[in-house]
Structure formats: structure tokens, C-alpha cells
Amino acid sequence: MFAKVVWPVSLKESENQIEGIIDLLQHFSTEQICLLHVHEKESAEAWRKLEKMAETLKERDFLVENYVRSGHIATTICDFARDQSSDFIILPWKTKMIVHRALLGNNVRDVIRLSNRPVAVYKDSWSSKRRGQQGINSIMYATAFKATDRVVMPYLKYEGVKADTLYLLNVGERAPDPEAEKKRRELVEENLGKIAEECSDCYNNIEKIADLGRPYKRILHQARSKGADLVIAGKYDKASPFSAIMGSIAEHLPHRSPCSLLVIPLEALTVTNHREA
User: Fold this and answer.
1) Which residues contact 244 (CB under 8 A, 6 or more apart)?
2) Cα gap 8→186, rounded to integer Å
3) What count of Cα atoms within 13 Å lies in the side-chain half-sphere of residue 221?
4) What stretch(es) of the chain map to CATH 3.40.50.620?
5) Helix H segments across 59-106?
6) Alpha carbon distance 126, 142 (integer Å)
7) Which pTM was predicted?
8) What's the pLDDT score for residue 145?
């Protein structure tokens, strides 16, 4: 599920970013990397930098191929990932000034919006730094008990992803009266329990969290509170009020998330099944 990745590079990545992404890919058990540089004007210098980066990756036992393309960055990345039949895309998060982001847009957000493949966004996790360790120790899955559960579940159970703890989070709205709220909470607990039971063989610890409030804010709060190393969220693309909310959450999470993210679109299941057929 994570064997082949497209890694778009600006060739301005810091050593810490490169090492962090390598560590994340190793924890995903990734084998093959397609390094992609999208440019306005091709140069020999870009190819030299790509080759140098590729050599570093090959020393870590990855299979690496280099590519240079031109065009709109986000669209080119997503089209290239589709053409390469990649399993997912990985990007480092780059903090930008609010004005700059508003004027030029954000490539990470655009890739998440456009991609029909999972998109991993690497961010330095303060929790990992605090523990003095690398990689993924805990995963938080934000579920709304919708169609994305069916798509995300194979990723939560994938044996190539190594994690000790799974946090299952649902953020809902309080019902209008006590009796309805009691029933809502019982249903939430039941649904969280079903997911926990299905994942029980894959993690040493599973914690169920039922929260109230605005999903975007509460997901970020819980990720910080629990010290999660990776947040997984599903993304809806079909037109509906709920899909608009979930799409917006998935696209905005990178801006303030304290840790790395994995955004899985609804189409990911179709893509995976087609590849395995």
C-alpha cells in the first residue's frame, strides 16, 4: 500500500526535512521512490541536485528514479502520480507567511484537494523530539463513521506501518436534549468499538476518544494533547454538505497540525483494487 511513492522536491529541502521524510518512508516500508522536480526552466544544476539526492536515498536501500517536469505544480504532481501508478505522494510542509499563502496559494493544500491518491505531509513532530526518538509511535485516526472508514481501514491495519498506539477520535455535535444525547453517545461508543475491534491485532494500545466541538479544532487539540506522531484523515470529494466540511478539514489540517499527516481520498480504494487486479 506504500511500496511506491512520488516525492516532489523543490531542491531547496533542508537536511532535516530530507532525513525526516526518509525516516517516515522507512516506517511506511516504502521500497521505490520517484523523485519529481517541477520547474519553470530546466537546468543542469537541477539534475545534479536530483542525482545527489538520489544517491543518498539509494544508500538507504530505496529504488530511486529521477524525473523533471514543467507545468502547474500541484496538477503536474497529481497527474504524474497517476501516470506512475504510485501508491501515494509525500510532501514536506513548508511554513509560509499568511499574505504569501493567500496570494500564491499552497501547493500542499492543492495536491491534497486534487489527488486521487493518499497524500502524506511530513512535519517535524514535537512529540517525537520530546521523546528523543524518530518515526511513528502513535497514530490518530479522525473518523466521522462514513464511507472513508471503509477506505482508511486497510491503511490502519497495514502491517508495513509500525506503530504502538492507535487513537480513534470522533468529533460530534451535542444532541438537542439529554435523551437524544445519551443515544448519540452510545452510538459513537459502539462505532468506535467496532473500529477498535477490527484493529485490535495491529496495535498494542487502542484508545477511543469521543469529543465535541468543531472537528478541525478538536482534531488538532487531541493530536497535541496525545502527542500523536501521525494523524490520518479521510477526504470526501463528492458534492454534499458533509463532503465540503471533510474536504475543508483535510486541506486545512497541515497548516496547524503538530505532526505529520496522511490524507486518504475516497478514490484510494478504487485505485488500490485496480492495481491489485
Assistant:
1) none
2) 44
3) 12
4) 4-122, 126-276
5) 73-83, 98-104
6) 20
7) 0.87
8) 87
Superfamily name with CATH number, domain 4-122 = HUPs (3.40.50.620)
Least confident of 217-221, 251-255, 256-260, 272-276: 272-276
Cα 272 off chain centre by = 16
pLDDT tens-place string over residues 170-204: 999 999 999 999 999 999 999 999 999 999 999 99
Half-sphere exposure of 182 (CA within 13 A, CB side): 3
At a CB cut-off of 8 Å and minimum separation 6, what does 143 contact? 149, 152, 168, 169, 170, 191, 192, 195, 234
CA distance 52 to 69: 18
Most confident range (mean pLDDT) of 32-41, 61-70, 132-141 is 61-70
- Residue bearing cell 444525547: 181
- E strands, the chain, in order: 4-8, 32-39, 63-70, 88-92, 119-122, 138-142, 165-172, 205-212, 230-235, 260-265
The one-letter amino acid at 177: D
Other CB atoms within a 10 A radius of the CB of residue 262 amount to 24
Grid cell of 19 as nine digits: 532525513
Domain with residues 126-276, CATH architecture:
3-Layer(aba) Sandwich (3.40)
Residue 67 has, within 13 A of its CA and on its CB side, a CA count of: 19
Q: Which residues of 120-148 are buried (b: 16+ CB within 10 A; e: fewer)?
A: bbbbebebbeeeeebbbbbbbbbbbeeeb
Query: What integer best gives the mean pLDDT of the chain?
Result: 85
Query: Quick one: pLDDT band at residue 242, thresholds 50, 70, 90?
Result: very low
Q: pLDDT tens digits for 50-66?
A: 999 999 999 999 999 99
Q: Which of 39, 21, 130, 136 is nearest to 80 (CA)?
A: 39
- In 3D space, the residue among 271, 274, 260 whose CA is nearest the CA of residue 136 turns out to be 260
